[in-house]
Description:
By secondary structure, the chain is an all-alpha fold. Helix content is 72%, strand content 0%.
Amino acid sequence: MAFAANPLSVSVPDAEFESWLRDSGYLELIDQHSSSSAAATTVSATSTSDTAAAAATDFDPASLTGGFFFDSLFPAVSVLLSVVSTNPFSKLTAADFSAPTPSWTAAFIGDCGSYSFPSGSHQARLRVTENVKRYARNYATLFILFFACALYQMPLALVGLISCLAVWDMFKFSNERWGWDRYPVLRQVLVRTAQCATAVILIILNVQKALLCAVAVSYAVTILHATFRKLAPTSRQPPKKR
């Protein structure tokens, strides 16, 4: 199903029409419209530049190539900067992690036609926030995978993580065995001791280094995928009442 640019443009402003598309779940149409508008603008600008260059008597191909390079570079840098400054988790909720995991091949990865460079900052921010919300479970799975790979590459960090779990498992067993709940002061001292032991183990065995590596890699993969992945159609939600 596809719409024209705005079939109700006579009676409904573009802003209201876009708001209705958002509330109805047709975000992929906004994404497609942004790409189509950017492509039309690029073709028009290129045609105008070629016409002006052909009519000029002092035509210089090198200067045309350099101007085209900078005209293409600056918008791309602006889009990437807008993505970096965007909070990708602004629309994320706990319900997104309880929803079914989207298909890895058909939905998450898709085909070659499922990716394109954003036409502008607005489209880039829309893709990032919406794709993070849609593929939250996929990104969480990738983070666990990257963390497991980091622990595999850093055996001491793996030993440290297992040691921390063992410390707290021993504390839980001892608490249930000897009933430390009856001695609040003693229990508080033991909790603080376990916390200090955990911190020492994490620092000495570089568990935090493995965690930071996994966070950095998974965050970069999430941002890149969410930015270039086109919005795919989803199940429609009933529009919000106004």
